[in-house]
């Protein structure tokens, strides 16, 4: 990819691991200055409980890729911390061109195939806080800075396209949490339109995050070994794919054509002609729609 984001300033909220980390690194690879935030640092571990992934590491990866990474420990549920973060960006850079809301950290709360009345209510309500409130708080404080210049980009990262999420996600609180970013993007697109901003919701496919690799007991190099346990993992994609999707969007002078829409990493890979790290272009949602839900006689290889 040749997208050049030199001189652009980005904030990736929730960049400790997974999609957020990969997005930050790819923005750095294009030359951007990237503020990376999260709750897990080298001195403190969040409720996610994964001490080996920190925002300091992410910032170092951004810089190693060719950009400038700046780690700022931030709990995006605390308005005062987010306000201080955006004031710092304004003080140090005077601009914000790209805002990525990738805050989540609720996978440990998930209980799939569980009726609402059997859920741990506190866990369900915590999902709303982690996956919805954080996004609203962050946008509230960051958008005034981004809106100073036309051409800003806000990406609401979620799980599943709006179309895919018409299928029930087997946990009411998770379902609501992962559908909310689509409506946030739709509403904010209308609010920033007159200011020249672009807002989209964006999802990866079946993501080979650090946590998912650990779940299957594989690495990024050996991930195909997990297909024996979970056949649908054959369509999985590395976090780099969604990172490259945001990089391509941010560099597109005509990105406003996407505003208000629900997008996927695979869709943008086809649109902007980039691939995953292995040279493939996985179409996760096409595979699920046609094969898993539609019964088509095909394999994941036909959708890579």
UniProtKB/TrEMBL annotation:
One Pfam short name: adh_short
InterPro entries: NAD(P)-bd_dom_sf, SDR_fam
Coiled coil: none
PANTHER family: DEHYDROGENASE/REDUCTASE SDR FAMILY MEMBER 1, DEHYDROGENASE_REDUCTASE SDR FAMILY MEMBER 1
Protein's UniProt name: SDR family oxidoreductase
Species this protein is from: Streptomyces siderophoricus
């Amino acid at each position: 990819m040749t997208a050049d984001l030199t001189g652009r300033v980005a904030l990736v909220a929730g960049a400790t691991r997974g999609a957020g980390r990969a997005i930050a690194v790819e923005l750095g690879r294009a030359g951007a200055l990237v503020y990376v935030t999260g709750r897990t640092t080298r001195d403190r571990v969040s409720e996610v409980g994964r001490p080996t992934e920190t925002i300091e590491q992410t910032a170092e990866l951004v810089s190693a890729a060719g950009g400038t990474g700046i780690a700022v420990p931030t709990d995006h549920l605390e308005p005062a911390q987010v306000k201080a973060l955006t004031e710092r960006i304004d003080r140090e850079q005077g601009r914000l061109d790209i805002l990525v809301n990738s805050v989540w950290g609720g996978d440990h709360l998930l209980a799939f195939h569980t009726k609402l009345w059997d859920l741990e209510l506190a866990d369900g309500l915590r999902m709303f806080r982690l996956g919805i409130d954080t996004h609203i708080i962050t946008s509230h404080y960051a958008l005034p800075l981004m809106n100073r210049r036309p051409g800003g980009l806000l990406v609401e990262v979620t799980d599943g396209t709006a179309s895919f999420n018409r299928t029930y996600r087997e946990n009411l609180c998770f379902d609501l949490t992962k559908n909310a970013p689509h409506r946030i993007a739709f509403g904010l697109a209308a609010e920033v339109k007159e200011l020249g901003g672009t807002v989209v919701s964006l999802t990866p496919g079946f993501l080979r995050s650090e946590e998912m690799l650990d779940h299957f007991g594989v690495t990024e190099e050996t991930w195909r070994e997990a297909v024996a346990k979970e056949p649908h993992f054959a369509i999985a994609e590395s976090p780099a794919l969604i990172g490259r999707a945001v990089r391509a969007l941010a560099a597109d002078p005509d990105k406003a054509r996407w505003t208000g829409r629900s997008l996927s990493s695979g869709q943008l890979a086809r649109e902007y002609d980039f691939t995953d790290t292995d040279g493939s272009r996985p179409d996760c949602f096409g595979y699920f729609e046609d094969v898993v839900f539609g019964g088509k006689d095909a394999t994941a290889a036909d959708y890579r």
